[in-house]
Amino acid sequence: MSSYKRTSSPFLKIAKKFNCFYINGLPKRHCKPFVVEGHQVGLVRPDIMVELLRYPEVFIVRPDSVELNPAFRDFDERTARVEQVLQECRANNTFVTLKGWRNECYNVHSVLTDPPLLRMDRSATCLFGIRNYGVTINGFVHDATRGLCLWLQRRSPTKETWPGKWDNMVSGGLSVGYGVIETAIKEAQEEAGIPETMLKDIRPSGAVSFFFESERGLFPNTEYVFDLKLPCEFIPKNNDGEVETFDLLSINELKEIIASPDFKTTSSPIVIDFLVRHGVISPETGGLGSLQEPNYAQLLELLHVPLQSIYHRAPPSENGDKVL
Amino acid sequence: MSSYKRTSSPFLKIAKKFNCFYINGLPKRHCKPFVVEGHQVGLVRPDIMVELLRYPEVFIVRPDSVELNPAFRDFDERTARVEQVLQECRANNTFVTLKGWRNECYNVHSVLTDPPLLRMDRSATCLFGIRNYGVTINGFVHDATRGLCLWLQRRSPTKETWPGKWDNMVSGGLSVGYGVIETAIKEAQEEAGIPETMLKDIRPSGAVSFFFESERGLFPNTEYVFDLKLPCEFIPKNNDGEVETFDLLSINELKEIIASPDFKTTSSPIVIDFLVRHGVISPETGGLGSLQEPNYAQLLELLHVPLQSIYHRAPPSENGDKVL
């Protein structure tokens, strides 16, 4: 017999944190779609819009959208004209996020499977709410005494974003020119020194989507998730200077760490998804799974928020009522 | 280097079928929230509303909602008054779905973890777009020659809904009085004769949510998913007369069958989720996974549509623009 007493929702609480914009910002903020060549590719907050108004030859702010000037002829012209504005903003310290200029670009797509419309420095995409795509590898071990364990990294204290925080073993953004699996393999080698012989066992295991907001901007993130069962004796070894240490955590250790402020908020959904898929988190107690989340179905929805629907909204119906 | 040529999306195509209401109906149909005791518990289509207008002492049709008369005092009175209307509709053949009256009730909740507000026959919940919760067990085998294989059932040709169709090995709705894990175990014994010794290995593996529509009504479904690795020699045996046969299918056989009209549409998301979690479906070709879905991230979103957000919509913002 199911009972209806209120129990705590440890993972739902975290899911609301990494979805702070989906839960609180999206229904309340008056953001406008960012439109390039007739496609919505982003979402612009009012505070960002105010700054973009200073560049009317590049950004056309309309009642219901912010449009990149449709007179720009192609990928190269769009990229150059936006870059020019961003460099000026960077020089003027207009946006905090541009202090972390990366000199590494993300492509801006309508849909990932379509050709890109322009490219933009990684640090700038959050200003326009451009969708980010990344890749994460969960390196795990079945330890004879500790049971299921997951490798995590501590980010280098010199990293521009989330310095010193706990993070997934291997992850990376889908940069210009790299495919999903290619990125996974490249990052596994650079970030954790995983040899090719072990990498043949990485297994595509799903994708998580969530919508986070920070002082830097908007983060509609989609992570392609891979699982990799590692030999017990293997120890990851960083090769690019971005990792402080690697640690192998048991389920009990993970449970403590993931809810702490020492964990990179936008990496926690991947760990929670891993714990769900491996049967660790359960909808009810009763022998199955060791951690309970009473709002299990809601948690699963918040690991896969409808970014596709948010960015490809149906036109308003006749009475102007947007249902989606 | 990723390429942008259009490739076919076999699984996305199926996901749009079991989400036909989420994709096409929800943005376009003028449905109204069904409200009980101040909580939205359902969604009512205009064609159903027309019939409910004949019972103004039970259903109050307002400009922006259909409300169950708030004068009803408690669970029992709400249940009895709705039942009375449904029995009259059933006698008058008002709704096709009521021909399949089940004499088995679903609880109607605001949230599953809260006490129920009323109960209603299973055949009637689709008229009000009440959320359904169910449980599915994926029984799978690692066959030495055929590789990963999944047990499926053929539904009995005498079943009221989806007669003779391919279906998951074990599934059942969360009926009044049963918990999630309890339902899984009960159904596994009744539907597939799985002995208790094997059942101790069932593993909670997530939940899928989707929003289907048929001539019978609206189906906002959430399925709690369990995986169960079975011994190669075990053969499921039905004990309740609802199953015609069980068959063990290889990945290649599954791939053919799942896209066919012989597969119960509302059971296919659970199979697709299984194939994603077991690394069979991959975002790209390249050695990993045997089946490719180029719109992988979108597929994952459509296996977990935001029923929670749809049923607990934030109030419209000041300018009347509903973003979610």
Automatic annotation (TrEMBL), chains A, B:
Signal peptide: none annotated. Coiled coil: none annotated. Residues 132-273 form the Nudix hydrolase domain. It holds the Pfam family DUF4743. It comes from the Eukaryota. GO terms for molecular function: 8-oxo-dGDP phosphatase activity. This is Nudix hydrolase domain-containing protein. It comes from Frankliniella fusca. The lineage of its organism: Eukaryota, Metazoa, Ecdysozoa, Arthropoda, Hexapoda.
